[in-house]
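your task:
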Amino acid sequence: MNDTQAKYPQLRFKGFADPWEQCKLGDVAKITMGQSPNSKNYTDNPKDHILVQGNADMKDGQVHPRIWTTEITKIADKGDLILSVRAPVGDIGKTSYDVVIGRGVAAIKGNEFIFQLLKRMKTVGYWTKYSTGSTFESINSLEINNAVINLPKEHEQNKVGKILSYMDHAITLHEEKKRQLERLKSALLQKMFADKNGYPAVRFEGFSDEWEERKLSDLFINVDQAEHLNQQIKIFMMATYLF
């Protein structure tokens, strides 16, 4: 991307013409690196503090509580962005809770535009340059704070963030519908085929006959039979054409 492309996106809302300002992420958003509590303080008690250690604690761009801790090290407030700083580097989510953050993540105080921007940075492989060749993929505080971004004025940030957030929500709804249909199909596969008694548990209205047990080979012709049949059809068609 050249300098002009960085300052002026190819697609914009009507009424915006100002160039985007290049800056460092740490200059516009407070970043807190995580610090893991002692593992002896981990619990499964939801009354304790939610612990976020990495990508495993996030789903569909949101923190999903999985582990709790009685020890507070570094924290992220409700509404903060959570960035994975260890493999897989760059995954980003939000937290709807006050949480304790482990060393596998960082907390970023940013708006919806920053959230969407960080998602894009992950998609285009921005963080890859910092981890290529490393034994263990990770990024540090300096690399995150010095990450170069391009920022529009606040009003345009809000417009961009809002429409992309709406699309994320729509995608999540469709993904949930897909999961529901997959579960339904799995259940029907178990119920709509005959069991050892010869009758399926679920049937369409108007059907009550017992299913007939047959060998699969009795229902389909093999390759040689199919080829012979094709030859017979060709001969018949030629004979019909000639006479």
